[in-house]
Amino acid sequence: MINTEEEAFRAVSYAKYPPEGRRGVGLARAQGYGKSFKPYKDWLKSSSVIIAQIEHIDGVNNIDSIIKVPGIDGIIIGPYDLSGSLGHPGELDHPSLSKALKKVKSACARAGTTMGYHAVDPDPLKTKNLIKNGYKFIAYSADFLLLSGAVQYGIANIKKDTII
């Protein structure tokens, strides 16, 4: 949840090793527990991607300064928390959320910043609409919703052909 330019600077610094950032240099699986540290460090410096999650109206109101922070490669909208911060939790069709999304989209278009969206509802048609509206990457639903949908579909089809 990035709400300010300062938080965006901190997010970038936590992703980069010194001297560019403040990330800890402890050995971990990503760099082979130290065996591949230099290649990982080089990859991190040249190829890592930092996405600011915008999920509060404060982040929307500060979007221009957030996306100008060096190292922020894009943003992703968290619609449920954003709707809650607007006083309409879960109302993803509420006009205030639409207005906030338009503000972010305009700012990203002006700056050439890539946008993403967490499409919680696993509806392919809604997701295609998000893509048509300029979102370049989608977090598609949530594991528990996808599993629940698959189970419901399976049980409905089992019951259809079974006498219980």
Biggest sheet, strands in spatial order? 1-2-3-4
Can you name the CATH architecture of the domain at 48-160? Alpha-Beta Barrel
**Secondary structural class:** alpha/beta
* Overall radius of gyration: 20 Å
**Strand content range:** 5-15%
List keywords for this structure.
164 residues, alpha/beta, TIM Barrel, 8 helices, 4 strands, flat
Describe the protein's architecture and organization:
The protein contains eight helices and four strands. The chain is an alpha/beta fold and 164 residues long. The chain has a domain at 48-160: TIM Barrel (Alpha-Beta Barrel), CATH 3.20.20. Strands 1-2-3-4 form a four-stranded parallel sheet. α7 links the parallel β3 (114-119) and β4. The longest helix is centred in the last third of the chain and has 18 residues, at 143-160. The chain is flat. The protein starts with a helix and ends with a helix. The model has no long low-confidence stretch (mean pLDDT 94).
Describe this structure in a few short sentences.
This protein has 164 residues and is an alpha/beta fold. 51% of the residues lie in helices and 11% in strands.
List the SSEs and their pairings.
Elements: H1 5-15, H2 37-47, E1 51-54, H3 57-61, H4 63-67, E2 74-77, H5 79-85, H6 95-111, E3 114-119, H7 124-132, E4 137-140, H8 143-160
Parallel strand pairs: 1-2, 2-3, 3-4
